[in-house]
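Hi V.,

You were right to ask for the full record rather than a summary. Here it is.
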Amino acid sequence: MKRTTRRTVLLLAVLLLLGLSLFFRTSALSPGDAASTGFYARQGLIPARPQPSAAPAAEPTGEPAPAETEAPAAEVRDFVISVIGDNTLASHQFAGASVSFAGRMKDDYAYPYSNTVQYFKNDDFTISNLECTLSDRKLSSAEQWYFLAPTAYANILLEGGVDFVTTANNHMEDFGQKGVDDTYAALEEYGIPYGKEGEARLITTDSGLVLGIYCDYNHLNPDAEKSAAAVRQLRADGAEYVICAFHWGKELYYSPNDDQIALAHACIDAGADLIYGSHTHNLQPIEQYGKGLILYSMGNWSFGGSTAPSDRDTAIVQVKLHRDETGKVTNTGFEIIPCCVSSRPVNEGYTGDNYNDYRPTPYTEGSEAYYRVLAKLDGSFEPDKEGRDYSDVYAQYS
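Predicted structure:
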């Protein structure tokens, strides 16, 4: 009886010691520890929590950690944009064959730019106004004057180094929608970028300059807010340099009107860098406004519209730009090359009817004509008369 009692007491003591040992062991583990979680899970008391897999420790390489990379600086460089006037690559419907655009050129597409191409082949971008229809169809027109050229005449622009033409002008619809469609198709076929009426688009030059170009025919009732909004959108779309090509003003007037001035200023205030004007068939002044440059009118260039334009003066304006290391592009100056719309008065002293051979030619530096062009562009020119009366224009072609 005693022996049994001792054994019972001894067994109870052993069980008590094991219980105390287990109590103190589990109390030392907190439920938040991975060890405690594993323990409780093994005991079936709580569900096992998924544990994140431990990433293997990176072995030391002895090399310093790479520094954070900065955005690369913009390419610092200079650019040249050449601006010229109206390209009308066909004569009007009354011109005689021998003195017409086609008669002078004789299918030599390099001929019209043969005396000036050197200025455009070495620049970054050349812009002009295309004031004729390109089509191989026999189209009819009810316009007083109309100009229809074969689609192959797009080669003239390529041979001359022209990079972009605006078609937002009063002759774009001479032959209705068929003429419009054919002109766009021809320009696309020959790979010549162009701008439509009221269109804003981005063009990247071969030299990497991102241009934003807005084209609009603003002869009557110009909408300054619409144009300014287009400028702001081009900036938002990533244009480094913004050009507005406007067809505006009064024909053969030598000063811009109030509407032209207000529209140009509004666009530059909105962020435009260059305003390119056409339509007047003569040069109008250049204005530097704020950080922008305004060419109110570049007159005619290779102009088939007349065998003897009353104003034969024209010019090339080459605008100089600079891109700094921040990517900002600004105007830094410009150069003027005074020219005549024809080579005949320059080389032969020819001043009679039908003097135009549609081949613009630089004036001799220092000549009277050279300084006359500069006077028109600086606003000091005083014309004997302005404007032209077209009411009896058909009489001479009876």
